[in-house]
Write a structure and sequence with these properties.
Blueprint: E1 2-6, H1 14-22, E2 27-30, H2 33-42, E3 47-50, H3 59-65, E4 68-71, H4 74-87, E5 91-96, H5 111-118, E6 124-130, H6 143-160, E7 166-171, H7 175-179, E8 189-192, H8 194-198, E9 200-201, E10 206-207, E11 217-229, E12 255-261, E13 273-275, E14 281-285, E15 290-295, E16 306-311, H9 313-321
Helix pairs in contact: 2-3, 3-4, 5-6
Length: about 325
Amino acid sequence: MSWGVVSKLLCGNRTYLKELIDLGVTEIHDSRISNLAKVKEISREIQTVYVKPVSKRNVAKMVKYADVSLNSEINTIRWISDEAVIQKKRHKIIIMVETGDLREGVMGDHLVDFYAEIFELPNIEIIGLGTNLNCLNGVMPSTDKLIQLSLYKQIIELKFNIKIPWVSAGTSVTIPLMLHQQLPKGINHFRVGETLYFGVDLVEEKVIQGMHGDVFELYAEIIEMQEKPLLPSGTLAANPQGEIAEIDDSLYGMSSFRAILDIGLLDVDPKYLIPEDGEFEILGASSDMLILNLKLNPKNYKVGDLIKFNLKYMGALGIMNSSYVDKKISD
């Protein structure tokens, strides 16, 4: 069994990438070529994997910075072959197979013909078959689906008298099958991101014993603190997000302390924030400000104080992608 770390959550942040590499990681996967370029700047020894079908206009850059790529289009692999010849490199390919989630992947019925078209292309080495599940329609991995992928490998090996080293079907959502000893033996390569960073069992939606779900923390500063009515006043129309406030008549005449934080939709969607302090609620956000209902403000928050949040995966991705939020590592 071998595995690589999906680093796209880190958005090319050199400090975080170096922290990852210092853990002893030898293979890093990403969906942004620029991020793989930064990995190669830190360490030429890391095997880099580009984890989505490459666009024609980016083939040259991808071949330069990625040692391996995931592919599902014959013409794309031909372009990669041509570019690998130009760059005098041997590029490795994982053929992605459709197993039900309907994102990228060759249909199983076409897989043998697909392989026949590409297996002798110059400067191309086919090292695996792979699949993605739960990424678009939420289709969960199962023992049956993964056995089918392993059977495709055996069929191709017998027909073409070759060996395919990897069956790359392990992603974070597949790890629970491994933990419950339900992973077919043919699956021998993992591409792991979310479980590494958040310690989460994506099937039971809980932190795996011995891991941590609070590695990423967000601190946002209070820039206004006022006691205000609970309900808006005036003629209501859609806000810039297309939302219209719903009015609860029972709240007329009532007020609470409202805090405005120095962060907004440009940085993160509030639904991916987990307040550490369960005594307040997130009311909404504009492009650059987040609004909280602190109720009676029992902890006496004031302007200048920091509010702490834990993050869901997509929340951390937004924060990491925002150039307006400072990042640091705390030992």
